[in-house]
Design goal:
alpha+beta; Pnp Oxidase, Chain A; about 210 residues
Amino acid sequence: MNQKNSLGLNKCFLNLDDPFELFEKWFAEAKKKEINDHNALALGTANKEGIPSVRMVLLKGFDKNGFVFYTNLNSQKGKELKDNPNATMCFHWKSLLRQIRIVGTLKLVDDKTADDYYKTRAYESRIGAWASKQSSILKSRDELLNSLENFKNKYNNKDSVPRPNHWSGWTLRPSSIEFWLDGDNRIHERLKYTLNEKNIWTKNLLSP
């Protein structure tokens, strides 16, 4: 068995009925081997007119309830998610020749969860959440830099920076999770888990 298959969809992994178990295994491998930002993912959203948008965000937590990231709620993606909570995530780990695609709906995390994570951020990042009106037009770069300085003066105690009401987290609750493993001559391996009407995961191999 070659290295690719030993890390991928071998019999041990195919026997897993819970996609979160397989995600955890692949995510752990990515943490060891991906050079930069193993938790980076492409987040796809669409506005109420159905026009799509995609950007990179960082996964900040996951469990059986879903996959969590944080953002400014007044940003483009924040506004789109308020109008249309359907979204998709794609992890691509080039070093492992793997992808994971996740489709589901998003729900805001509770205030305590958002507060707890916000407190773990660096001081400059907490200030940035206040200073940046994410996705809005800047007259100049100085406008942003001045805003950063103003909020540093306002919240000069690095241990006491409150979380802005406009900054929080979203949990994507998946309805399907697909694992993709690169294959020779584009004969890739694909394993898709789908949540059925009884809230039970079913799995199928897909043709590349």
